[in-house]
Design brief:
The structure holds two protein chains of two kinds.
Chain A: H1 2-22, H2 25-50, H3 53-85, H4 88-93, H5 101-127, H6 136-164, H7 167-183, H8 196-204, H9 206-219, H10 226-250
Helix pairs in contact in A: 1-5, 2-3, 2-5, 3-5, 3-6, 3-7, 3-9, 5-6, 6-7, 6-9, 6-10, 9-10
Chain B: H1 2-14, H2 19-28, H3 33-47, H4 49-52, E1 54-65, E2 68-79, E3 83-87, H5 94-101, E4 109-114, E5 117-118, H6 123-127, E6 130-133, H7 145-155, H8 160-173, H9 189-200, E7 207-211, H10 219-234, E8 238-243, H11 246-252, E9 255-260, E10 263-268, H12 270-277, E11 280-286, H13 292-299, E12 308-310, E13 315-320, H14 323-336, E14 341-347, H15 351-359
Parallel strand pairs in B: 3-8, 3-9, 6-7, 7-8
Antiparallel strand pairs in B: 1-2, 1-4, 4-5, 9-10, 11-13, 11-14, 12-13
Helix pairs in contact in B: 7-8, 7-9, 9-10, 12-15
Classes of the chains: A mainly alpha, B alpha/beta.
Chain lengths: 253, 367
């Protein structure tokens, strides 16, 4: 039974990854966009924000990779909505396969895509001056944290995709919840610089905790409690959204 | 006694006891081995859908979406080895019924047994026994035809080798060998439907559900698909299909169930249903298509029900009892009114006529 479930998940993951290979623009555009962000923020705001692009890129890159997997998470819901509207989900639900395999296959293949994107971002970052300042293994830990965060948010996105059932709606719904979270966080600037209300929100934003953790591991600044808050958030997301997504998958009318 | 024995055996199997251990335990408890064998064999044949001859049994099935009652107490039986058509307009409840039968949807209440299994409790086991081709060709466009079939095979838990072999067979059977290694994006509407149908047959199901299999296809592709379905039926597959096309039901089905507003309102062979309308249909073709509106009220009193007007074809059709007498009357009346007739025929009723007289509206009218 467990081996069949595993086999189903692997088959579904392979299918999704094959789709990314066949339609490379899916991955290319989701990589180009954050690279553009990286370049624009570094060269346009870098000077204003920290008085020199050299130090800002070290601050920014950890934030940008967190933002990238956050935006990338939207694709999980969009892809599921696409499968739903094309009747693929009906096909899968009519097969004697594990009920969790479609969702797990989806989120895992998006995790694999994130590995590719995050590594590419790091390489581009290094080309424009980013330096790993706290050792290679701490940086690996930072990337691991980023990927885990992306995986957690994929489940939120999956739930939304299954509820809205429509690619366009999944897209715009994605922007509604992703944008405020991304910008009212420490991804681009320190929360201390924000106005009071936003700052309250930003300080408790899970993305701030994740970005702070990733940044601390990368720069060698103190991690503090950020890592625990970040992990707690992700744990909470898994606990709530995995069962919620599976429930919606089972009950698709 | 026998049912408790069976449930004891089933429970023992669930806890992981081997067959040998179960037999040992039962004989130790005083059961005679011959009695045991007889009871178990009887049980197996009662489980075999072909022994009762019924592959689908549905009783008082209900399903509502908010205030809308999609299924308002459907009861039906389908015999193994037959082709049954569920005929009805859009929104009649056909698709909802198919979704319940194929485990995609849980009903609010009612009994559903399909292929000898409870479609609500044994849903996962049932999925391995049936095939479904839904209303939209459910194929992955980025994959090739072959990859689509292999994907489905792997999800039926066939080994990679068996999946590949099965994909080969199906591509051959559905005339997709040349297109098999091309991305499904490049397929025509007819090829998509064929691939979709092929995917529903990967596990060689004894029972196949087809939800509007030819909707949106051009006439040539429709004929090709009909041929394939007829071949499947000839090879012993039981088919339950839904359609809005009366011609399709007429072509494919031994048995037709007319569904309207979530209920089976009539059923029988196509011949029986046509006889229900009784008599013949008088069909008048008018030279000037606009004249249909003038002609209809004039001949209304000749028929058993309202005349049916089709302006596009310039025809008025009306069910009649004494065909030949009425024919002459109609010609005389229309001649007096100076409405030029290009053709007038008495014909046996079609399923369209049946539907009209059963529901008061035409099958294609409601959208």
């Amino acid at each position: 039974m467990i081996s069949q479930t595993l086999s189903d998940i692997i088959v579904m993951t392979k299918r999704n990854l094959l789709r990314y290979m066949r339609v490379p623009q899916l991955v290319v555009f989701s990589t180009i966009q954050p690279i553009m962000f990286l370049l624009l923020f570094t060269y346009v705001f870098g000077g204003a924000i920290q008085g020199g692009t050299g130090s800002y890129i070290n601050y920014l890159l950890p934030g940008i990779i967190v933002q990238t997997v956050l935006f990338g998470a939207m694709m999980t819901g969009i892809a599921l909505a696409d499968d739903l509207s094309k009747g693929m989900i009906d096909r899968f639900r009519s097969l004697p396969m594990a009920r969790s395999a479609v969702l797990a296959g989806r989120t895992i293949s998006d995790l694999v895509r994130n590995v590719f994107v995050v590594v590419t971002m790091t390489i581009v970052g290094m080309l424009i001056g980013f330096r790993i300042e706290h050792g290679f293994f701490n940086f690996l830990g930072a990337l691991g944290m980023t990927l885990l965060f992306g995986f957690a948010f994929s489940w939120i996105s999956a739930t939304i995709g299954l509820i809205v059932k429509n690619v366009e709606t999944a897209q715009s719904a994605g922007f509604i919840w992703v944008f405020p979270l991304a910008f009212a966080s420490s991804i681009f600037v320190r929360v201390e610089t924000m106005s009071k209300g936003i700052r309250m929100f930003a300080e408790h934003n899970p993305i701030t905790y994740v970005a702070n953790t990733v940044r601390a591991l990368s720069l060698g600044t103190p991690v503090g409690n950020n890592v625990w808050y970040a992990l707690a958030w992700m744990f909470g997301i898994f606990i709530v959204f995995i069962p919620l997504a599976v429930r919606h998958y089972r009950k698709i009318a | 006694m026998n049912t408790s024995l069976i449930s004891y055996i089933e429970e023992a199997k669930r806890t992981g006891m081997s067959n040998r251990d179960i037999v040992h335990a039962l004989t130790k408890a005083g059961w005679d081995i011959h009695d045991l064998a007889t009871i178990v064999l009887d049980h197996i044949s009662s489980q075999d859908p072909s022994s009762s001859g019924l592959i689908i049994e549905v009783d008082n099935l209900k399903k509502s979406y908010g205030p809308v009652q999609a299924l308002a107490g459907v009861s039906l039986f389908v015999k193994a080895g037959t082709v049954t058509a569920l005929l009805g307009p859009n929104g009649a409840g056909k698709t909802t019924l198919i979704r319940v039968l194929t485990t995609l949807l849980k009903p609010d209440s009612g009994m559903v047994r399909v292929a000898g299994l409870d479609a609500i409790k044994d849903d996962q086991a049932l999925r391995a026994r049936i095939g479904l081709a839904g209303q939209y060709a459910a194929i992955d466009e980025t994959l090739t035809g072959r990859e689509n079939l292999e994907l489905v095979g792997r999800l039926y838990h066939l080994s990679p080798e068996v999946s590949r072999k099965r994909a080969d067979e199906l591509l051959h059977q559905f005339d997709l060998v040349d297109a098999g290694n091309r991305s499904a994006k490049t397929y025509s509407g007819g090829m998509r439907r064929r691939l979709d149908l092929a995917a529903s047959l990967v596990n060689k199901p004894a029972l196949l559900f087809l939800d509007e299999p030819t909707t949106g296809l051009d006439p040539r592709s429709r004929l090709a698909l009909w041929r394939i379905i007829k071949d499947l039926v000839a090879a012993g597959t039981t088919v339950l299909l839904t359609t809005q096309y009366l011609e399709e039901a007429d072509q494919l089905a031994d048995h037709v169930m007319v569904i309207d507003h979530g209920r089976v309102i009539e059923q029988g062979t196509t011949k029986e249903l046509k006889n229900k309308v009784g008599g013949d249909v008088l069909e008048i073709h008018l030279d000037d298509h606009q004249h249909v509106y003038k002609a209809a009220p004039l001949i209304k009193h000749l028929g058993d029900s309202e005349p049916r007007i089709n302006e596009e074809d310039g025809t008025v059709a009306i069910p009649v009892k004494k065909g030949s007498v009425v024919l002459i009357d109609a010609v005389r009346i229309l001649d007096d009114a100076q409405l030029k007739i290009s053709d007038i025929v008495l014909r046996r009723p079609t399923l369209d006529d049946v539907f009209l007289s059963l529901t008061g509206h035409r099958a294609e009218d409601i959208k």
